[in-house]
Amino acid sequence: MTCAIGLFCENCGAETPESRFRLKCASCGGSLDVKYDLESMKNKLSESFFQSGSGSVLKQWLDVLPINNPELIDKIYLGEVETPLICSSSLGKELGIENLYYKMEFTGPTLSLKDRATSLCALKALELGYDTLCIPSSGNNAASVAAYASKAGLNAVVFIQKDVSPAKVLKIIAYGARVVRVDGDISMASNVCSEMLEKHRWFNCGGSNPYRFAAKRTVAYEIIRRLGGLVPDAVVFPVGGATGMASAYTGFVEMRTMGMIPSLPRMIGVQLEACDPITRAFDEGSEVIQPVTIKPSISDALKNTSPFQGKQVLKAARETNGMFVSVSDEEFIRTIRLLATKEGLFVEPAGAVSVAGISKLLAQGRLKDVKTVVCMLTGHGLNSPQAAIDTEAIPAVIEPEVSAVESYLKI
After folding, report:
1. What does the alpha-carbon distance between residue 272 and residue 269 come to, in Å, rounded to a whole number?
2. In sequence order, what DSSP letters do the residues of 138-153 get, joined into one string?
3. Which of 108, 212, 213, 408 would you call most buried, defined as having the most Cβ atoms within 10 angstroms of its Cβ?
């Protein structure tokens, strides 16, 4: 039995039955959110919280997810499991952080954090009788939706922005989705997707889908479980649309409300200097997030001028003594290479900005007295390999002789 009690409007409080699922409240147009019976949830979690299971992450966190038909989990299962939390072997010491952890969200079936949410969205689409999944995306989300649609026997229509890593585009096509490449940025892709949704009964796995948010909040539960109940001093998130940071904050708040943790970690968001509307609002002390002009960047992700969860993450940062910071292309490129050569972790630009951000904050003296920090690594380097390594770095061909090898290696 699910602990979810229904869909409620964040603005007016009106309830929307799941059978009449929609992205916006029919009464006022506000966003819908899943509400839970926290007392029931607490009782269920108290029995097995620190016992990591195996198999689908949806099965592992069934007690905190809005799933009515658990038997459908196997129908959409692609190998999405609880992602590893590993301790730094090198960079933590260099940065002066006693316990620096990496939450490896890039280990999902399609190599990005998106699989955690898409798995639940695909299941809910089956529960609710949809036959087509759709998403506006900068690449990773489109690949995830395409893969899960294929597994679930559903159609997929994905809207991607003009500038997307070729590696991501090829992956999306391989999964069999119908790809609409829009001449514009992610906001333009979102607009045309929204217009299509007005005419077609498709299940939108992005934006304000409350099930996407519900699934992403489980990352907070995983962090606390992996740390044996310890609350980290700070958790650092790459931020574009801001759903990941906002949903994790909700997870931490739920655990504090249920008495599972005594306090909240400092919530730190990192944006690209090329597109940082939330950082600017934070620095200015503003409650209003103004759209910005996107500057050139080799990163094809995190460029969202009107982040859907922007106000929520501003609140999360301010209420936890957290902060926002922006990083340049040079800073995250350097971090990609450091993570690869010093930690054995190959991540894409959007996956590296959390570590680049914490490094910058420490160097600027803005962040002090943190012993345990968790950085979210959200996408594998194979999604954008050109960001880290120039093709000129590919070794020349040499003769298959020992002398030639020794000469090449200068040994």
Report:
1. 10
2. SSHHHHHHHHHHHHHT
3. 108
- 263 secondary structure, DSSP code: S
Question: Is residue 318 a contact partner of residue 285, using CB atoms and an 8 Å limit?
Answer: no
pLDDT tens-place string over residues 315-365: 999 999 999 999 999 999 999 999 999 999 999 999 999 999 999 999 999
Note whether 245 and 264 are within 8 A (CB). Answer: no
Q: Which strands, in side-by-side order, build the sheet including 155-160?
A: 178-181, 155-160, 132-137, 203-204
- Half-sphere exposure at residue 322, Cβ-oriented, CA atoms within 13 angstroms: 31
User: What class, spelled out in words, does domain 85-111+212-387 have in CATH?
Assistant: alpha beta
- The SS3 call for residue 327 is strand
Q: Please, are residues 35 and 22 in contact by the beta-carbon 8 Å criterion?
A: no
d(CA 62, CA 48): 12
- What length does the chain have? 411
Please state the pTM of the whole predicted model: 0.95
Q: Helices 38-48 and 243-257, interaxial angle, to 10°?
A: 80
283 neighbors 324 (Cβ within 8 angstroms): yes
| Residue 240, C-beta contacts closer than 8 angstroms, at least 6 positions apart | 138, 271, 275, 301, 302, 303, 304, 307, 350
Q: Which residue(s) pair with 379 in the sheet?
A: 112
Q: What is the pLDDT of residues 146-156, one digit of tens each?
A: 999 999 999 99
Pairing of the two strands 4-9 and 15-16: antiparallel
